[in-house]
Amino acid sequence: SLRLGKHVELVMTDERSYRSDQAIPEDYAAAAGFLAPRMALPKILVNLLDLGSAAGVPVIPLGNITVPNPRNGSPIGTMLGKTQKQWWKDTMKGSDATWKLWGNEVTLMRLRITSLGPASPLPADLVISGDSWDGYNAERTELMTYLKDNGIKNVVVLSGDIHAAFAGTVKDNFDAVSPTPVAVELVGPGISSNSLLSFFFAATTSNPQLNSLIAVETAPGSGKFTENFNLLLLDGSAAAATYAATKNLTAALGAADPNANAHLKYVDTNAQGYGYIQVGPNKVTASIITIHRPILTPSTTGPGSKRTATFTVTKDTPALLGPTFNTGDTKPFPLT
């Protein structure tokens, strides 16, 4: 950790060196026919296997059969490892700084794709990535409950790695009936790497129904697409499916699920860019800047900015105000 003046403590964690293996082993994911070994995984199965032997479930389904639970003899999954987790707790509890900025390597918030029903291509709720904190739900709940139980306020989580931009509120337990907000999170995109949307679009090309939930061509043969993936995460699968069928945003929002990812304030799944924050004694102002992708832009003009989404966090209030945009900015769908 690093103390930055009177009001700020920066807490950095290593989420690669000490973590346990992912909840769903990649060979199991491949045998089960999931979209990808680490992406778009059934939420209920990820949560179950993350618990290891604590789940008390010796066998699990694999298609029409059951197989031995590969983590039945394992402890609960960990992202931080025992020693680093205790250090994180002690540091957060012991800090007298107004703001605790957590430099967090992988997305903390839940990113859920809601089910379209048992007979559909999305028969169950999915999590975007088992490589992020969604794959380590038990430890995430433990840490966020620790913040709540110890009255640790003004935690701002700064994350990346997922090749997209997000902003929202972190809850103590995303599976609770009435979860409590305990922190805010800002997720910056990669500066030039392929976007999260591009991965999902490529992975679903063999299934037009799923593919249309990711991107919808604005007109036949135009080569231009609307980022339906944003709507999918903000408002649920029914809303995204309605937009894919009608290209009518009003109709799509009429089918919105307010609980799809109610904690999300901002989604830009097709983004390259960066973020910055300004910290004062009573508020934090944060901006996520989306740029024109550098490799697609003539070098004589530079990449340029598509949009700047700005958020405010007020002291002692675990909520984000915003986003606001600069005049002339192109807002991400469906905010347009």
Mean pLDDT: 94
> What characteristic shape results from the CA principal axes?
globular
Low-confidence stretches: none
Task: List the helices and strands in order.
Answer: EEHEHEEHEEEHEEEHHEEHHHEEEEE
**Residue share in helix:** 10-25%
Write the layout of secondary structure elements.
Elements: E1 2-4, E2 8-12, H1 26-32, E3 39-42, H2 43-50, E4 59-62, E5 65-68, H3 82-94, E6 99-103, E7 112-113, E8 126-129, H4 137-149, E9 155-159, E10 165-171, E11 181-187, H5 196-203, H6 208-214, E12 216-217, E13 225-226, H7 228-235, H8 237-246, H9 249-254, E14 264-268, E15 272-279, E16 283-291, E17 305-314, E18 321-324
Parallel strand pairs: 2-6, 6-9, 9-11
Antiparallel strand pairs: 1-2, 3-8, 4-5, 7-8, 10-11, 10-14, 12-13, 15-16, 16-17, 17-18
